[in-house]
Amino acid sequence: MDQSPNQFRQWPTPLRWVPEVLRVGRQRLRTQARMMISAMLVGIVAGVGAIGFYLATQLIEHAALGAICGYEPAVRPAGETVPSWMPATAATFRPWLLLVVPTVGGLLSGWLVYTFAPEAEGHGTDAVIDSYHRKDGVIRPRVPFIKTIASALTLGSGGSGGREGPIAQIGAGFGSILGNLLGMQPAEKRVVLAAGMGAGIAAIFRAPLAGALFAAEVLYWSPEFEPEVIIPAGMASVVSYCTFALYSGWKPLFAIPADLSFTNPWQLGPYTILALWVVLLSMLYTRSFYGFTRWFHRLAIAPHFKPALGALATGAVGLGLYYAFGAESDLRRNEVLSVLSFGYGGLQQAISDGSVAGAGVLLAIALGKILTTGLTIGSGGSGGVFGPSVVIGGCAGGALGIVLSNWWPGLALNPASFAIVGMAGFFAAAAKTPFSTIVIVSEMTGGYQLLLPALWVCMLAFLLSDTQSIYSSQVENRSSSPAHQGSFLQHLLGDAVVGQYFKAGALPAMLRPSDPLATVLERMNQANITVLPVVDDQQRLLGVVNLEEVHYASQSATLPPLVLAADLMRGNVTPLQADDPLERAQQLFVENDLLALPLVNDLDERQVIGMVRRFDIANAFVRRLQGQGFAANNQTPGVRG
Q1: C-beta separation of 469 from 279 below 8 A
Q2: Would you state the pLDDT for residue 254?
């Protein structure tokens, strides 16, 4: 079909597109710029904080466990950087000091936390989740600093825990500080807080994609994500990972054998057994952890000393396992003492060649780590719970892999594969984070060839596990979160307005400014309401009188005869209108701090036509929730005179 030149001129030309594209781009950039810049700043701080905390734990570990106890791990994770200026210890190993050094570390940590920031106790990720849901994304500025020092003392001296909890709280704490400085709304503060948490995970585990997913997934124990968190958390995670990797290098945290693969679908049978195995262990982990927490909370001693008691018991477990399994060689000692501190050396050995340790030793490490983590952090010690979880899941998975490879040699099962997949499956069941856990273990190990069995095991582990999570502050879903109740209420009420259920009738009881206190009391008794409007001769609203002020005035022995309604009146009250949405009415009740508000014809004339009680709004919400809608003929009116 032929086109004339005039027809072509009617089409937009590229030169006409450019201004519109630039205008839309500038508008979008203005709305997103603050969040993008905030996410990148949080990422930088999380990365630098991870470097500082990483060095602090290494220094204290070298001084406490190395120079004093004489314990130096024989095997370390392949990606763990040891500063060249930190030489290997030459001290003789003295096992009995494993009772003393962790106790001193727990004592110092307990004094620091409970003196300056009690909310820094325990595992920091849970505190961040609680702040997201219940505290509008606010963390006290001192908490990240106290958490850093206390966690370094706890973990460096032998307490069982992970680095991720403190780092998550450092990143989230800075996000909270930044949100306050920039005057962000609570919804924005929560997003920046969660982005900081993800950035901390991304840095310490060299897992940027997992950090973004973890921040959005860990907030709920159901399969639900926080969508507005993912993009800022992704940006913060990339920046924090790059910042930390400039110091630590770009290799994954753990090295794995090169021959790991999944090429036989019949192996899904043994992997199903692995899923059942990690579900049972995760239930033992969560229940023992919170069992120890409750026991220590009930213990009738000052909280400052409880972490020391937990650390003493932790050292006793490590000492017992040493004499039971580890006295014969340095390698075996390295394995069984993985129940102390981070424990990554024993996990690296299980991944590299778990058959050297044997199934019995790996199982002892897994069960011992469950015990020491509950004792250390449940007593109020400071540290994370993800690090111990990967050690427990990896060692338990490796132990099962050794057993199953002997039972079914024809399937050519590799115990190292079971160790890696066990890491993912165990935490997916314990923390209810199946998708981010798959990614985080893959990035920590570089074991992407095991994505299929990891997906299978994590999905089964999540579905078969119960609702008990290692993170007690998680909620079921967005509708259960206090952070989102306002938006869900607004969605539920939709376009409902006050006038839909207010039935016009006789005017409510009103006061004049010159009415004495006796008249005010009489009108309140007759109207059976705690708030009365004060109006002029044209019934225009001047203010309201609240029962609380009336009560205070009536208690005085000399004032009542002299008090008038004008003296008791609050004049800065915003009234309701018939076309106000119910969600707006709820906000006005909160802002005015009253149980009833005047209903006026409009905000210019302000003529009072009724009173609306807070109870009416709550009743309307309940009816909407039950699907009854608003039937005007059956509604109780606001308050009529």
Answers
A1: no
A2: 84
| Burial class of residue 183 in the structure, from the number of CB atoms within 10 Å of its CB (0-12 exposed, 13-18 middle, 19+ buried) | exposed
Q: Return the C-alpha torsion angle 16, 22, 27, 29, nearest 10.
A: 160
Span 61-89, pLDDT tens digits: 888 888 888 887 777 777 777 777 677 76
User: Does CATH number 2.40.37.20 belong to domain 265-480?
Assistant: no
Q: Look at residue 309 in the predicted model and tell me its pLDDT.
A: 94
* CATH 1.10.3080.10 domain range(s) in the chain: 32-248, 265-480
Q: What is the residue whose two structure tokens read 């024993």?
A: 346
d(C-alpha 178, C-alpha 170), whole Å: 12
pLDDT at 628: 46
Q: Which residues face 639 on adjacent strands? A: 611
User: What are the start and end residues of each CATH 3.10.580.10 domain in the chain?
Assistant: 494-634
Q: Is 22 helix (H, G, I), strand (E, B) or coil?
A: helix
From the number of C-beta atoms within 10 Å of its C-beta (0-12, 13-18, 19+), residue 620 rates as buried
Q: What is the pLDDT of residue 581?
A: 79
Residue 90: Cβ within 10 Å count: 9
The per-residue DSSP string of 428-495 comes to: HHHHS-HHHHHHHHHHHHT-GGGHHHHHHHHHHHHHHS-S--S-TT-BSSGGG-GGGHHHHHHHHHTT
Q: What is the DSSP string of 548-567?
A: HHHHHHHH-SSSGGG-BHHH
pLDDT at 98: 87
- Name the residue type at position 56: A
CB burial of residue 455 (10 Å; 0-12, 13-18, 19+)? middle
Q: Which residue has the tokens 């990035």?
A: 443
pLDDT at 103: 93
Angle, alpha carbons 476-586-473 (nearest 5°): 20
| Dihedral Cα 595, 598, 602, 607, nearest 10 deg | -170
Fold of 32-248: Clc chloride channel (1.10.3080)
Closest of 386, 417, 423 to residue 278, by C-alpha = 423
Question: 577: which strand partners?
Answer: 600
* Whole-angstrom distance, CA of residue 507 vs CA of residue 611: 9
Q: Which helix (H) or strand (E) holds 515?
A: none
Output the pLDDT for position 332: 60
DSSP string, 28-89: HHHHHHHHHHHHHHHHHHHHHHHHHHHHHHHHHHIIIIIIIT----S---TT----TTSPPP
Q: What spatial distance separates the first Cα and last Cα of the chain, rounded to whole Å?
A: 77
CA distances from 543 to 89, 195, 593, 606, 637 (A): 77, 45, 14, 10, 22
Sign of CA dihedral 113, 115, 117, 118: positive
* Both tokens assigned to 2: 């032929």
The pLDDT of residue 22 is 56
Low-confidence ranges of the chain (pLDDT < 50): 1-11, 628-641
- Give the domain 494-634 fold: CBS-domain (3.10.580)
Q: Which pLDDT score, from 0 to 100, does residue 559 have?
A: 59
Strands 596-600, 608-613: parallel, antiparallel or unpaired by DSSP?
Answer: antiparallel
Structure tokens at 155: 């973990």
- The per-residue pLDDT for 440 is 85
